[in-house]
Design a protein that fits this description.
This protein is of the alpha/beta class and 352 residues long. The protein contains twelve helices and twelve strands. It starts with a strand and ends in an 11-residue tail after the last helix.
């Protein structure tokens, strides 16, 4: 374990809140107060901040901490929790960002790294893992995506222990004598892109259904995911949608024709999404986020996608970059999400 310090009936328009205009950094003034006080989700500013965090989770703790300081969590504490076991297809990385006053904590999972074969094999390790989940304190066994589950499980306990320090009013940086924070944890958010999105969604289920995690779940405000593949069977999705938090506060964003939310394909078995879904659709030179009343479905029985995923995705990038044809893996890249989530009149993480 490594710890480093539409216009169709199926669409309803998402109307973003009026953005906060700022001069210079931070991008959002009083971001901690915003994250604590926001009662309705999705919130456009929260989505922008968390989408940016998810995009930079492909870097290191120093970079993530710096970007989140630019966004508005100045003087934050940022740690990376990671575990890598190649033969087990485990490549699990999460960043935890704590506001300087201790009131806000963000858990951000890293997604699929383009150059990591283990990441790709994790994504396609779809053999189901049967796990008991106690919805309404009534345990029942569900099938989940084996690769995603094992990667969440690999770092879960260290992440939980870190969150508990925040609950106790301590710095997440830990050590023999963790520093005291001005406040204990008030608002927890979980986010991620791609594989990281799937892990965030699975962590949301664990936090909201396991009684031992109830004190943490009470602080969980929302889970924002970007380009998330499906993590379990339709039976699991149905059970999640029967839970108010998982139905309303797990919010999935899909940019354009991103292929990843349509995975795994039907050749891998039946999978389904849960929670709210928003999709970015373009009109000419502009685009907007729309609410999907019906969630994205699986891709068809694509044998090549299962037997030779790297060849398939390489070909998809080559085709869709030039022709903009069919399900578009290029739309999966995190910078597209960040750009589409940035409100008009608000500077980017790079400044004006």
């Amino acid at each position: 374990m490594e710890i480093v310090h539409g216009d169709t009936p199926s669409y309803q328009r998402l109307r973003p809140l009026k953005p906060v205009r700022t001069e210079g950094f931070p991008v959002y003034q009083n971001l901690t107060d915003k994250l604590v006080s926001t009662a309705r989700h999705p919130n456009h500013e929260c989505a922008h901040v968390l989408g940016t965090c998810a995009g930079y989770a492909y870097s290191d703790a120093d970079t993530v901490g710096m970007i989140m300081a630019r966004m508005g969590l100045e003087d934050n504490h940022c740690v990376m929790v990671a575990q890598y076991v190649d033969v087990m297809f485990i490549c699990s990385t999460a960043f935890l960002i704590q506001s300087r006053d201790g009131r806000v904590l963000v858990i951000c999972y890293r997604g699929t790294t383009a150059t990591s074969l283990i990441n790709w094999l994790t994504d396609f390790d779809v053999y189901p893992q049967k796990i008991p989940i106690a919805f309404n304190d009534a345990p029942k066994t569900f099938d989940v995506h084996g690769g995603f589950y094992r990667n969440v499980r690999a770092t879960r306990y260290e992440i939980i222990n870190t969150v508990r320090r925040a609950l106790e009013g301590q710095s997440i940086k830990g050590g023999d004598k963790p520093a005291s924070m001005p406040h204990s944890l008030e608002a927890l958010y979980v986010t991620g892109h791609s594989l990281g999105a799937a892990m965030a969604s699975m962590m949301a289920i664990m936090l909201t259904t396991e009684s031992a995690y109830r004190p943490i779940a009470e602080k969980l405000r929302a889970v924002y995911t970007f380009g998330q593949p499906m993590i379990g069977t339709p039976e699991l999705a149905q059970a999640c949608n029967a839970d108010e938090f998982l139905r309303e506060r797990v919010i999935r964003y899909i940019y354009g024709n991103d292929t990843a939310p349509q995975l795994p394909p039907t050749a891998s078995g039946e999978f389904a999404h849960f929670g709210q879904e928003y999709q970015y659709r373009t009109r000419g030179e502009t685009g907007e986020w729309y609410h999907n009343s019906r969630p994205t479905k699986q891709l068809g029985n694509l044998v090549q996608l299962v037997t030779n995923p790297l060849t398939f995705f390489t070909r998809q990038i080559e085709i869709t970059r030039n022709l903009r044809f069919g399900p578009d893996i290029y739309d999966h890249l995190p910078h597209n999400y960040i750009a589409a989530l940035t409100p008009d009149g608000v500077q980017t993480e790079f400044g004006r």
